[in-house]
Design brief:
The complex is a heterodimer. Chain A is an all-beta fold. Chain A is 0% helix and 58% strand. In chain B, strands 2, 4, 5, 6, 9, 10 and 11 form a seven-stranded mixed β-sheet that branches.
């Protein structure tokens, strides 16, 4: 079935470093790719999304890139801060209904 | 203050009992979703609804039931047929299904003892 793979499962960086999280998807018809940040005990919140008609999108310190040919997309966080520490999920719209299928999450830890 | 509200935040039930989780949204969204979150497994879709009085099974619907009698409400019942009900349950809504931002509630942590 359709799936989204996400790597790495955990990522530790020093404050100020960059962090990159990668996802691959299986459905070539996918056209919407959101990224969510989830803090402990809370629901996920959208931080950035990209549609298949663009290759890159930026919003201040975060950016997402999409390679449709290779069916992978990545989240880039620059100048990381301790408050960036959370679990990040990627997702891809799947199939005719276009439901969202989520990756398994990346726990990012930013050390001061 | 618009948003999506799940209640309660924590819920304890004895094995064999049905339990209903509440999800209400005042965003005027058509689509609503229920996800289950387990450690290391991301979010898995239980049920979704595109419009009132209509809903479809997601990837892990067995042991769950839903209703959509009102646009703003999408309650989830965890039945005794669900083999491993202990989990974190998340409700979400979106203007349209799939291809637009999904807003999540704060979740309900269900523990069955």
């Amino acid at each position: 079935g359709e799936n989204v793979e996400q790597h790495p499962s955990t990522l530790s960086v020093q404050e100020g470093d960059s962090a990159v999280i990668k996802c691959t998807y299986s459905d070539s018809a996918s056209n919407y790719f959101p990224w969510y940040k989830q803090e402990l005990g809370k629901g996920p919140q959208l931080i950035i999304d990209i549609r298949s008609n663009v290759g890159e999108k930026k919003d201040q310190r975060i950016a997402v890139t999409l390679n449709k040919t290779a069916k992978h997309f990545s989240l880039h966080i620059t100048e990381t801060q301790p408050e960036d520490s959370a679990v990040y999920f990627c997702a891809a719209s799947i199939g005719g209904f276009q439901k969202l299928v989520f990756g398994t999450g990346t726990r990012l830890l930013v050390s001061p | 203050d618009g948003g999506i509200t799940q209640s309660p935040k924590y819920l304890f039930r004895k094995e064999g009992q049905n339990v209903t989780l509440s999800c209400e949204q005042n965003l005027n969204h058509d689509a609503m979703y229920w996800y289950r979150q387990d450690p290391g497994q991301g979010l898995r879709l239980i049920y979704y609804s595109q419009i009132v009085n209509d809903f479809q099974k997601g990837d892990i619907a067995e042991g769950y039931s839903v209703s959509r009698e009102k646009k703003e409400s999408f309650p989830l019942t965890v039945t005794s047929a669900q083999k491993n009900p202990t989990a974190f349950y998340l409700c979400a809504s979106s203007i349209q299904r799939g291809s637009t931002e999904a807003f999540f509630g704060q979740g309900t942590r269900l523990t069955v003892v």
